[in-house]
Amino acid sequence: MGTNAMYQSLLRDENGDLSNIRRASAGFAAGITEALVVVTPFEVVKIKLQQQKGTSKELLRYRGPVHCAMTVAKEEGLRGLWAGATPTVMRNGTNQMCLFWAKNNFDGLLWGKHEGDGMQLSPLQSMGSGFSAACLGPVCTGPFDVIKTRLMAQERSQGPAKYRGLWHALNTIPREEGLRALWKGLLPRLMRIPPGQAIVWAVSDQITGYFERRAVEAQGGVNV
Question: What CA–CA distance (Å, rounded) separates 180 from 87?
Fold first, then answer.
């Protein structure tokens, strides 16, 4: 949210307004930053650890997150920790673009709340619009999420990779498994992401709404 706020500040016009296109662009830029700086290497480590089978530590290839990261870097180079970066960038960028654009519009559609008007949403109202907005991203980014996982799960040290990159995977998966395979795991994502975002927005809106209301009152605006 902090990165998104920074990009929004850069994209506001001379009157301080933010169009829907610029709001979506700020979200996309925030998602790209998030994907490259934080998400991709941690996703690589997480997926490789999740792929391990069994409970005996002696039989596991990776002993933990740090050992996994060091092993990948040693065997595949540092670039190995950013395997699947392109679909991750597309997934996170598209998801954040949809989320911040949709949240703002759901606030207006459901509750008549507009940015800068000083209106304080209740936690339940924030949860409603946050939950609704967060449903859009997983549907739009399903193919990127599947491709990201397939690329990250490949063990390049054990032979040629099945998928050579984003476009090769995007062509291969539907051909071999059908188009619906690009949305595998959509239901678990919908069960995880929207409820989590509902809680995040319930808290975030209370904080930002408080300061927004204070700013409006300080400028002599009407109490809401």
Answer: 18
